[in-house]
């Protein structure tokens, strides 16, 4: 890859417009284009960055490389794409916000965050560089932690000098992804880093002016050795609790846990008493139980909601959309809550504004199968499922007329297990990491299920967001049906299906 950097240009505006348009038209021809999820118009979409509310609008940036799949010889590096919104569901594209055009970020304006302070949006992010010792072909990564601010005209002004050059003693060059917050007139940032002994951890920085920063040391968790690198850490306080969401890389899969190439995990505990960095927390959990979710970022909405958005994709994973010169999309935004010490993730209420026609669904199934002929895979399902006996319900979504190809959701009351099966769902993705995901989950008589399907994705919320399964699906054109199978007993289904705008 590094050799390709020699052909790189810093700004998309330096690429001939016809080459850019060509990429976009290839992407537009994809059968997998989503209808209500954020996607890149060409190239890669990765981590959400700078998710914030500023100047009367929601702002979302993301890791973006619009010419990543171009055959033309101008390879643009990761920069930040900028979107704005009034309601978190209808987004306006403002193009590139930060491109990789300084000596501190030549090989990528990597992930970071933003917080509004008075009339500025303060941004903190990582610049990635490689020192060119081309003669012995030994490329050395050198990261820089950088700041900038965006004014009310959405112009980004970058600081002249880095906050941190390179890395600290005891850490490798995997040192990135600052997430910033403000508390009691102090600024804090948490960074994902790798220790010299190749274990991952997170560092906390403090500043009282956003210019001079000093380290408070590592966030002290119970996990001394948890993977080899922590990417995209996000620490915040919610309902009197402290919460860390992060991506520890290198966890070994065990049982049904940690099946994806990389995971997004969380630790829920007491609030950290900064400048002390001790974090008293419960055990590690996965944020999502599906196939495709990474690099989540949260923000505080003006009404106090803690809202999370994630990349619906994984690093180092080839997706069928790449044939159409783009990859990645965002999840829908979700609201986070803690109830009885448990995390709940709920689709934001603004999603309801995307509803069109409503079809009600009332089915009583006795050991049988029902075909709900749905026209288009862009639906919200809001269902209550009632089990009469110890039975199982299988929901086949994205199914063909014979139900041979489908994405299957199995609610097994007998085994107290929820499983999703992507094996027959269309073009395969990352099958080396398995084709099913499952969790042990106590299924009582009554279950509430909310599902969002778009052209090539599914997001499943169990019991008001107590568990979430997020996955990409790449179906064939004829996979427009949905079947319900009740096995060994009676199942009642009651609810609504909304078509989505
Ligand atoms: C996570 C990540 C971050 C990095 C960014 C680069 O997906 O690897 O650690 O900042 O992507 O695009």
From TrEMBL:
Pathway: Glycan biosynthesis; sucrose metabolism. It comes from the Bacteria. Gene3D superfamilies: Exo-inulinase, domain 1 (2.60.120.560), Glycosyl hydrolase domain, family 43 (2.115.10.20). One of its GO terms (molecular function) is hydrolase activity. CDD domains: GH32_ScrB-like (cd18623). Signal peptide: none annotated. The keyword Transferase does not apply. Keywords: Carbohydrate metabolism, Cytoplasm, Glycosidase, Hydrolase. The keyword Cytoplasm applies. Residues 37-347 form the Glycosyl hydrolase family 32 N-terminal domain. InterPro entries: ConA-like_dom_sf (IPR013320), GH32_Enzymes (IPR051214), Glyco_hydro_32 (IPR001362), Glyco_hydro_32_C (IPR013189), Glyco_hydro_32_N (IPR013148), Glyco_hydro_beta-prop_sf (IPR023296), Suc6P_hydrolase (IPR006232). Residues 350-486 form the Glycosyl hydrolase family 32 C-terminal domain. PANTHER family: BETA-FRUCTOSIDASE. This is Sucrose-6-phosphate hydrolase.
């Amino acid at each position: 890859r590094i050799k390709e950097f020699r052909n790189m240009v810093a700004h998309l505006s330096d690429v001939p417009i016809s080459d850019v348009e060509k990429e976009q038209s290839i992407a537009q021809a994809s059968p997998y284009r989503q209808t209500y999820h954020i996607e890149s118009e060409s190239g890669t979409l990765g981590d959400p960055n700078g998710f914030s509310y500023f100047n009367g609008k929601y702002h979302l940036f993301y890791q973006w490389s619009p010419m990543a799949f171009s055959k033309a010889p101008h390879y643009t590096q990761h920069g930040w794409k900028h979107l704005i919104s009034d309601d978190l569901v209808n987004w306006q594209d403002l193009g590139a916000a930060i491109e990789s055009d300084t000596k501190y970020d030549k090989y990528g304006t990597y992930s970071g965050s933003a917080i509004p302070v008075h009339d500025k949006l303060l941004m903190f992010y990582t610049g990635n560089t490689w020192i060119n010792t081309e003669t012995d072909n030994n490329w050395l990564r050198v990261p820089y932690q950088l700041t900038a601010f965006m004014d009310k005209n959405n112009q980004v002004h970058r600081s002249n000098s880095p906050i941190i050059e390179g890395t600290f003693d005891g850490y490798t060059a995997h040192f990135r992804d600052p997430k910033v917050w403000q508390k009691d007139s102090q600024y804090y940032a948490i960074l994902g880093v790798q220790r010299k002994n190749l274990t991952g951890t997170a560092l906390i920085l403090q500043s009282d002016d956003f210019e001079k920063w000093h380290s408070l040391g590592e966030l002290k968790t119970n996990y001394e050795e948890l993977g080899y690198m922590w990417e995209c850490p996000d620490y915040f306080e919610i309902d009197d609790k402290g919460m860390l969401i992060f991506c520890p890389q290198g966890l070994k899969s065990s049982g049904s846990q940690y099946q994806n190439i990389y995971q997004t995990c969380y630790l829920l505990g007491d609030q950290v008493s900064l400048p002390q960095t001790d974090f008293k927390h419960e055990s590690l959990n996965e944020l999502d139980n599906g196939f495709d979710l990474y690099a989540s970022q949260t923000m505080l909405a003006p009404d106090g909601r803690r809202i999370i958005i994630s990349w619906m994709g994984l690093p180092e994973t080839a997706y069928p959309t790449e044939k159409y010169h783009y990859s990645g999309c965002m999840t829908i935004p979700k609201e986070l809550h803690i109830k009885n010490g448990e995390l709940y993730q709920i689709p934001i209420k603004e999603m309801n504004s995307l509803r069109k026609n409503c079809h009600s669904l009332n089915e009583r199934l006795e050991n049988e199968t029902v075909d709900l002929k749905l026209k288009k895979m862009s639906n919200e399902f809001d269902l209550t499922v009632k089990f009469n006996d110890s039975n199982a319900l299988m929901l086949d979504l994205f199914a063909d007329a014979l139900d041979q190809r489908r994405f299957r959701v199995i609610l097994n009351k007998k085994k107290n297990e929820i499983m999703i099966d992507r094996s027959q769902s269309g073009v395969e993705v990352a099958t080396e990491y398995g084709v099913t995901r499952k969790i042990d989950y106590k299924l009582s008589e009554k279950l509430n299920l909310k599902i969002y399907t778009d052209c090539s994705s599914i997001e499943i919320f169990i019991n008001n967001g107590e568990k979430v399964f997020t996955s990409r699906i790449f179906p064939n054109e004829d996979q427009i049906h949905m079947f319900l199978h009740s096995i060994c007993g009676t199942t009642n289904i009651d609810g609504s299906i909304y078509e989505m705008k």
